[in-house]
Design goal:
Layout lengths: L2 E10 L3 E10 L4 E10 L5 H11 L7 E6 L6 H9 L3 E5 L1 H10 L7 H14 L10 H31 L6 H30 L2 H10 L7 H11 L8 H8 L3 E2 L2 E2 L2 E2 L3 E2 L5 H6 L1 H9 L3 H14 L2 H22 L1 E4 L12 E4 L7 H6 L4
Parallel strand pairs: 1-4, 4-5
Antiparallel strand pairs: 1-2, 2-3, 6-9, 7-8, 10-11
């Protein structure tokens, strides 16, 4: 029997890390080598490494750490391990949850969750985690803060609308809402300025953003959100993965003679779908050729405007992905057909793109 690799499962909470070290052999058997709990703070991460080194009897075998994405509580240990040149995998909670259910566990606690994560890391080929760059991490903080203020502003306006049309208004609440709306407008303006300054201060990021904002309907804020929420489109091997990440993948509901409703999954990053909602309307309204053609085609087929607009949202997302990936300029003057996105994609170097690039843009 030959041991193949080790895996450390980390079940993370605000205050502690539940740790499980497991190993898999050449026959596919998984053996737990040890479990412990350490504090979730920077000073305790060295203790974690010492414990793993002590229980890792064969140093030459590959080792990786697997954890769930738990708000921000997983970030300190993930960054620490990455800086120590360790292999780190970060999973979405629902993926780990479904895997644990498949193992037949009836109980649930931190120790069982850590064992399940370690086993999952041994049995599956998980994608290694790569942290955000400093500028994109800052951009994500700014764009998410902008979304929060925008939502609070909308709530305040809705409340004031209700007061204005109620039987008995309230002057005190009206004055409060007026002041709050002024504060929200001021803070939103400051956030937009900070986003512009951050992008302008990064020459590479600025050039990419200028390429994407050339598409009608996509303003700087929309592009900033797409970049921040996709980590500059890092980690996506193809368009299908990006579509699934954003929740635009199609879910069918058909069995035998029954044909249920087909819809998008919406199991993905909701911020991407939110920020593409209005750009899809604007792209059609202002006559962006590729988006308008898709909208008309889908609307004729389904007779449902919202389905057509969702198709435009997906097209905008994949178009930005292709242009970003190939550092290409978008030329909307291309004479289109149903399978092409644009007439000419001109790379930054000025050369003509090959047919594989054009094929990547053909997802209408």
């Amino acid at each position: 029997m030959q041991l193949l690799r080790y895996c450390v499962g980390l079940d993370i909470s605000k205050d502690s890390l539940q740790v499980c070290l497991s190993v898999i052999d050449s026959e596919g058997r998984v053996v737990v080598k040890g479990s412990t709990k350490v504090a979730n703070k920077t000073t305790a991460f060295a203790q974690l490494e010492q414990w793993v080194s002590k229980h890792r009897k064969t140093d030459g075998l590959p080792l990786r750490y697997v954890m769930e994405s738990t708000g921000v509580y997983h970030e300190p240990v993930a960054w620490h391990l990455y800086q120590k040149d360790q292999s780190v995998c970060i999973l979405l909670p629902n993926k780990a949850k479904h895997y644990l259910k498949s193992l037949g566990y009836k109980s649930k606690n931190d120790k069982i969750d850590a064992q399940g994560l370690a086993r999952m890391g041994l049995e599956q080929q998980l994608t290694l985690w790569k942290p955000l760059s400093k500028n994109i991490y800052s951009l994500r903080l700014l764009t998410r803060q902008h979304q929060r203020f925008q939502e609070w502003k909308t709530q305040c306006r809705n409340q004031q609308h209700s007061l204005d049309h109620s039987a008995l208004g309230d002057d005190f609440l009206t004055k409060q809402n007026t002041k709050l709306l002024a504060v929200y407008d001021q803070q939103l303006e400051a956030l937009e300025k900070a986003i512009q300054d951050l992008i302008a201060g990064d020459a590479v990021l600025k050039a990419q953003v200028e390429r994407l904002t050339a598409i009608k309907g996509l303003a700087l804020l929309s592009v900033a959100v797409l970049i921040a929420e996709t980590n500059g489109f890092e980690g996506f091997a193809n368009q299908r993965q990006l579509v699934s990440y954003a929740g635009y993948d199609v879910i069918e509901n058909q069995s035998g003679n029954r044909s249920g409703k087909t819809r998008i999954s919406k199991k993905g990053n909701s911020r991407i779908r939110r920020i593409l909602h209005l750009p899809a309307f604007n792209a059609v309204r202002f006559g962006e050729p590729t988006c308008q053609a898709l909208y008309e085609r889908v609307y004729r087929k389904t007779n449902t405007k919202m389905k057509a607009y969702v198709a435009v949202q997906k097209k905008l997302l994949l178009l930005t992905y292709a242009l970003w990936r190939h550092q290409a300029d978008y030329d909307p003057s291309y004479s289109m057909n149903q399978s092409s996105m644009c007439k000419k994609i001109v790379p930054a170097s000025g050369t003509t793109q090959d047919q594989s690039t054009v094929a990547e843009l053909s997802f209408g």
